[in-house]
Amino acid sequence: MDCMGKMWRVVPVLLLVFYLQHCAHGEPEVPCYFIFGDSLSDSGNNNKLVTLGRANFPPNGIDFPNGPTGRFCNGRTIVDVLAELLKLEDYIPPYATVSDYRILQGANFASGSSGIRDETGRHYGDLITMKEQLKNYQIAVSRLTNILGNDTAAMDHLSKCLFTVGIGSHDYINNYYLPQLYPTNSEYTPVQYASVLINQYFQQLKTLYKHGARKVAILGLGRLGCMPLEVGLYGEVADTECVEFINDAVQIFNDRLVRLVDGLNANLTDAHFTYINMSGIQSFDAAAFGI
Ligand SMILES: *[C@@H]1O[C@H](CO)[C@@H](O)[C@H](O)[C@H]1NC(C)=O
Ligand SMILES: *[C@@H]1O[C@H](CO)[C@@H](O)[C@H](O)[C@H]1NC(C)=O
Ligand SMILES: *[C@@H]1O[C@H](CO)[C@@H](O)[C@H](O)[C@H]1NC(C)=O
């Protein structure tokens, strides 16, 4: 058992791979893969940070070939499975330790507990916000440019890479729905908060585009109101399965994200953005602990 969980969770990802197979020939399906996001994608960037949001110790990694690595789960993450489906040589290394040789094949910038907003998840300790992940990416692009010789060669290389971005869950569970620690809940309605998040995400995705990303898959948020953490905090009766007002707020975000993806495709015609529907996901692996 790994972090992909039930088979039907895999379906949208398989569709993505199917799409890629029709756009790229030869093996592997893409020459490189860059990853942004939170604990669902992190493969060890938080290991050296001072934070409770770390996972480089058991029982994390008990089913992973190398044992604990910093992945927030027992086995592979969704982005590991994607790397396998794309027939990449190996899993994508964390940016924190990636070598110049491997950086040509991509890097994983994701950081557990992080969000679209800078303050999100801070009560756990250090983390790498989406803004900082994008800064690290720009450093990686300079390294690539040095290796490949010039900007044109670097941009040409990056245009062939897959990018996945999965962020926003912690802006809800470790920000908006922790009103004792964060003020956003009293500052914004769920509709306003979704707008604020989407506007900031829009700028972040444009930054990614500006620095070479052309094939971008964006993971929607799962049903966060079904996480044991949220049911524990907000479930009113013992048999409540999910906190529906949280799922409703997340749905507003996802609907806006679908529209954003459509808008990006309409405006940035030399790029392709894909929305991945994660709403069916019921279990959250380590994220169930709120990290
Ligand atoms: C960039 O580098 C590539 C090979 O790495 C070379 O073919 C090309 O002429 C260079 N372009 C410029 C503008 O220097
Ligand atoms: C697309 O372009 C229109 C017109 O310039 C602009 O109003 C809109 O914000 C853009 N949307 C996206 C998602 O880029
Ligand atoms: C995502 O899938 C769920 C069912 O799992 C469906 O209810 C929802 O409408 C889908 N959302 C989008 C944006 O396609």
Automatic annotation (TrEMBL):
Signal peptide from the UniProt entry: 1-26
Pfam family, one: Lipase_GDSL
GO biological process, one term: lipid catabolic process
Keyword terms: Hydrolase, Lipid degradation, Lipid metabolism, Secreted, Signal
Record flagged with keyword ATP-binding: no
Family to which this protein belongs: Belongs to the 'GDSL' lipolytic enzyme family.
UniProt source species: Vitis rotundifolia (Muscadine grape)
Chief localization: secreted
MF annotations from Gene Ontology: hydrolase activity, acting on ester bonds
Taxonomy, superkingdom: Eukaryota
InterPro entries registered for this protein in UniProt: GDSL, GDSL_esterase/lipase, SGNH_hydro_sf, SGNH_plant_lipase-like
One of the record's GO cellular component terms: extracellular region
Record localization: Secreted
Lineage: Eukaryota, Viridiplantae, Streptophyta, Embryophyta, Tracheophyta
Stored PANTHER family: GDSL-LIKE LIPASE/ACYLHYDROLASE-RELATED, SGNH HYDROLASE-TYPE ESTERASE DOMAIN-CONTAINING PROTEIN
Name of the featured protein: GDSL esterase/lipase
